[in-house]
Amino acid sequence: MRTVIQKQSFVGQQDLFDADSALVLDSTFADRLMHGVILSDAVFVRCEFRSVSLYWAHMFRTVFLECSFTDVEFRGANMEQCMFVRCALTRCDFSRDNLGGVTDLSDVFFTDTQQTNCKYDAA
After folding, report:
1. Chain centroid to CA 34: how far?
2. What is the largest CA-CA distance in the chain?
3. Half-sphere exposure (CA, 13 Å, Cβ side) for 78?
4. Cβ(61)–Cβ(42) under 8 Å?
5. 123 vs 116: CA distance, rounded Å
6. H or E element that contains 53
7. N or C: which end of the chain has fewer CB within 10 A?
């Protein structure tokens, strides 16, 4: 059974966030380091991400539906079979990680998603 997180606000450097296989609805993430977080098989619906670092996050089969991302770092994240559906991505960073590893987007699905001023250097 999935954990359901609804209408929550995660702002600043608070407790560790665990959303492995969770359903996250109408929630906000802002000014937050989430390095290496496990979001695999999670579903995010109508969530907002502002100034969040998902550096080396595990996002295998994660689905984002109608979410907005502003100044979000995805560098080095495992995004295999990740889906962005009807999302808006603004100034997001998909470039190489600190060890020079690429952020592989070859198996990421962007459907009806707007991408504005995002960085894909060597992604």
Report:
1. 10
2. 39
3. 11
4. no
5. 16
6. strand 48-53
7. N
Q: What is the DSSP string of 62-111?
A: -EEES-EEES-B-TT-B-TT-EEES-EEES-B-S--TTS-----TT-EEE
Q: Which two tokens stand for residue 68?
A: 């907005």
**DSSP category for residue 60:** T
Model pTM score: 0.92
pLDDT of residue 2: 83
Distances (CA, A) of 80 to 18, 28, 106: 19, 24, 8
| 119's tokens | 């960085």
Nearest to 53 by CA among 108, 100, 117, 10: 10
The residue whose two tokens read 């079979």 is 81
* Confidence at residue 123, expressed as pLDDT on a 0 to 100 scale: 47
Question: Which of these, 97, 88, 96, lies nearest to 68 by C-alpha position?
Answer: 88
pLDDT tier at 46, thresholds 50, 70, 90: very high
- Pair 77, 102: CB distance under 8 Å: no
Q: Which residue has the tokens 């997001």?
A: 92
